[in-house]
Amino acid sequence: MKTNTPESTVATAEVEQSAALPISRRGLIAAAGASSLALGAGPLWAQAAAAALVLRVGFISPRTGPLGALGETDTFILAQVRKALAAGLSIGGVKYAVEILDRDTQSDPARASQLAKALINNDKIDLMLTTTTPETVNPVSDACEAAGVPCLSTVMPWEAWYFGRGAKPGAPSPFKWTYHFSFGGGGFAKSYMSQFSLLPTNKKIGVLYPNDADGNAIRASLAPELTKAGFTVVDAGPYENGTTDYSAQIAKFKAERCEIFNTFPIPPDFATFWRQAAQQGYTRMVKIAQIAKTGLVPSQVEALGPLALNLGAGCFWHKSFPYASALTGLTGVQLADAYEASTGKQWTQMLGSTMSLFDAGTEALKASANPRDKAALARAISTLKATTMQGPVDFAKGPVPNVSVTPVVGAQWVKPAPGSKFKLDIVITENADDRNIPVAAALKSYS
Fold first, then answer.
1. Is CATH 3.40.50.2300 correct for 186-315+415-430?
2. Same fold, 17-183+320-405 and 186-315+415-430
3. Which DSSP string do the residues of 143-184 spell out, in sequence order?
């Protein structure tokens, strides 16, 4: 398989002599001989020392294909990360250069797995970072678990990551090398119960959950919690990604008069469904339309035209979150403003969540006694406590081993303030899952 050439930057490595790692004469000569052609002129011992002190971090995300909109901020974030790491990373008195090897899955799970294996076997990475939906995160995590390479991931329900990869409720974790911090069904339940109580409805929720890792995890974890809270859940049944005719599901929601609607589809499927729902009259009876997985970035909702206005969304990062980046020191507002000034595009949720992945990854590297020791690095992740731009990460708290839960709050796509150059704005409407996050606006009825 041919992989893309990585956009990688290597920071200058400096060894603090008082704490330099010992290198045997035989090992030094061997390393120097192996690297002399690649590193160019200079003393062989210096070349070998520099080669030994480079940390290679893989980063895999979808930047093209059906999920490509979720990776549209990656190039900007990678530039910020490389700038922050340009002088190297000091760990235990030693300064390491850090090389970021980034790859695009093209929204293909099989390609995600292949890219991960290539980074592991060919590029000899020390740490893997991956983000965005089970279609990316799970195959990358599985490749790392099989190869014994530490992996840190985010942006998919933790249940779909943990149980979707074979873990069993109440049983010991089968994972030694892979760790995940993200939102989960419990957070969605808390947020949705809060959001759905903000407007008077008949408390009937029409749910459209696909037959995939996300949909099945949410069906198992979220729907029962909503039922316990007194809502009537009308499930149209699992559907296959890529479905083009939703007439049967729409007819069921209309017959049951579901005034609340909730879905976790890939973006193209929701666009198809929602246009058909409007044509067949269902959207006129919907008071709260709560979408997730899609509707995360402006381009996805703007494509719906007038049908986008007042759509509800789950918000796992907003520029108003009160947490700064541990790596760059930037606040959410500073990061969003810098992105808009640099690209001319509107900020998205993925901006802060991807920065959070690098926040957690660099904190884990610093917490390990020796980041080149994969077992030591995995142990450092397993007890990691850090504050990222997305919020606190604490792997000691659970709810299960290898997982740390981050907040999700309710939001809504609305008309922007006068003078804005953008077509829509996303505002936070409830904060039950994290009271530190400010609420900016009252929820409006969709219809």
1. yes
2. yes
3. HHHHHT--EEEESS-HHHHHGGGT--TTSPP--SSEEEEE--
Spans of all domains in the chain: 17-183+320-405, 186-315+415-430
Each residue of 58-79: pLDDT tens digit? 999 999 998 898 999 999 999 9
CATH of domain 17-183+320-405: 3.40.50.2300
pLDDT at 296: 86
| The dihedral sign for the CA sequence 91, 96, 100, 101 | negative
Distance between CA 416 and CA 405 in Å, rounded?
Answer: 31
Q: What is the per-residue pLDDT across 226-279, written as a single tens digit (0 to 9) for each? A: 999 999 999 999 999 999 999 999 999 999 999 999 999 988 999 999 999 999
Question: What DSSP state is assigned to residue 423?
Answer: S
**Length of the chain, please?**
447
In three-state secondary structure terms, 233 is strand
Tokens at 306, concatenated: 């007038």
Element (H, E) at 340: helix 332-343
CA atoms of 431 and 446, how far apart (whole Å): 20
Q: Using CA atoms, how far apart are residues 380 and 367, in angstroms rounded to an integer? A: 6
Is 265:39 a contact under the CB 8 Å cutoff? Answer: no
